[in-house]
Amino acid sequence: MNKSDLFEIVGKKFKHLPSREVEKIIQKIFSSIVESLSSGKRVEIRGFGTFSIKNRKERVGRNPKTGEQIKIDEKMSLIFKQSKEMRRRINEK
Fold it and tell me: Which of 79, 82, 76, 92 lies closest to 45, judged by CA?
């Protein structure tokens, strides 16, 4: 599923809203999540999961083509932990 698919699915469920309004709402949700994560906050959506940021320290790696050692810079990574509810629903048969 991509963003366009999401807009379409949500638009079908909320037929009383214009499609542009649905897009704006979904975009605002995404930007709010990114903004919170960028400021170091975790985002918990009950029944879905928790988004957080983890600092990955600088380390030494290898270039897979040459085998040469390379420095991998420190960076922030997104972590997602699914909720128990999400895990249960995904694993239902």
Answer: 82
